[in-house]
Amino acid sequence: MRFKYIIAALCLGAFVSCDKESISEPGFDITGYKVTSIVDTSGNAVKEVTFSFSGDAAVISFYPGLLGNDYAYREGRVLDVKALLSSFSTTLNNGTQENQLSVLVSSDFNGTYDIANIRLATWTDITSHYVLNTRGASASLPSGTKDIREFVVEGKPLYYAYRYICKPQTENGANSTWRIRAFSLQSQTDLGAASLATLTTADWNLINDGAVVDPGRGAVIESSGAIRFNGNHINKEVQTESWAISKGFLITRTDMGPDRPIAIKSAINPRLGSYSFNYTTPGTYKAVFIATNASYEGQLRVVREIDVIVP
To answer: Is residue 5 predicted with pLDDT exceeding 90?
Structure first.
């Protein structure tokens, strides 16, 4: 009986040895591709790329070269903010005083919303980036969408602000009324634009400074959500300064983790002679196929790639 166990053990060892030696490098390769214009199941016009293969492998996976499925980022992808897009609209009514409204940003404001701390901060005037409305216009004027990414300091929040100054009115002219509407701040990445704030979600803090600020004057948020600025209508010879300052926006890179392949064949599937994938956007893509033969003792794989031109 003991002899039988020894024989069995020897056979098992031989089996393991033979199994390990039987793992061979996949004889898999890409022989070419063709591009066909089709309409997909959702009714979209796409380019169907059909790859042809020679040889075989137990397992095959595919990187089409798209965001999230790109072999070049298999170890990980960090998404950079490529642009910080800002816009708003304005109206200007009444009065004659000029140059009362300014648009500013700061990366060293400490977040304490009082005039003393505001003046301790460094504010960059970016008014010239935008188009402001003219007096008496019947409709709000869009400012244009501007990229303010250059004012971001890594690791520090960016604050966005509107400042309104009304000088003594006898000498400088009657106060004007400005309204800010349709504020938008968006981050632009390879994934597209993502909203950071709108007029109602920017958490505006209003600060009014002056020896006397008449009730309801200076900076006010109206029931519509618009930010309104105007000067005193009683104490007209008192200079006032009013601010609307947003919350701080921390503009950071995003770690997206590794890009992943698409599994197109498992060990139980028959030989794969071709594979089709739909591309939605013209361009040149690096398509990568990984073919693997494996057992519990180990695995061998080959990586095959081809540049795909999608017209």
So the answer is: no
